[in-house]
Amino acid sequence: MLILIALLAQAAPAAAALTPAQRHALERDIACPASLPGDEARIASMKRFINRYALYAPRSTINERLAFRDRVLARRRCRQTGSELIHTFPES
Fold first, then answer.
1. According to the UniProt entry, where is the signal peptide (predicted)?
2. Can you give the three-state secondary structure of 11-78, one letter per residue?
3. Which of 31, 35, 49, 71 has the highest local Cβ count within 10 Å?
4. In a domain? residue 69
């Protein structure tokens, strides 16, 4: 039983832990998409956020990064009409 738990612990990716200072820096840089002037600004904003989060927590998943951003946007009560949220993730 202990061997199974040890194997599962090694196989599971570690959750990306951010320090309070890192969380604050990320939150400070997130702007409501509707407040930005256009799609290019929204894409640039998202790229900056994703890249900075990756610097702070390289093992984090895109889902963790987007969930963090979504929580900040919800807490700020950003308007969600839909159209300005379509192009917030940079295409490869």
1. 1-16
2. HCCCCCCCCHHHHHHHHHHCCCHHHCCCHHHHHHHHHHHHHHHHHHCCCCCHHHHHHHHHHHHHHCCC
3. 49
4. yes
Which is it for the CA torsion 60, 65, 66, 70, positive or negative?
A: positive
Give the global pTM. 0.69
pLDDT tens figures, 54-75 = 999 999 999 999 999 989 998 9
Q: What is the rounded CA–CA span in Å between residue 63 and residue 30?
A: 16
What is the extent of the structural domain holding 33? 19-85
**Domains: count for the chain:** 1
Residues in contact with 53: Cβ distance below 8 Å, sequence separation at least 6, in sequence order: 26, 60, 65, 68
Residue with tokens 């009560």: 77
- Residue 81, classified by CB atoms within 10 Å of its CB into exposed (0-12), middle (13-18) or buried (19+), is exposed
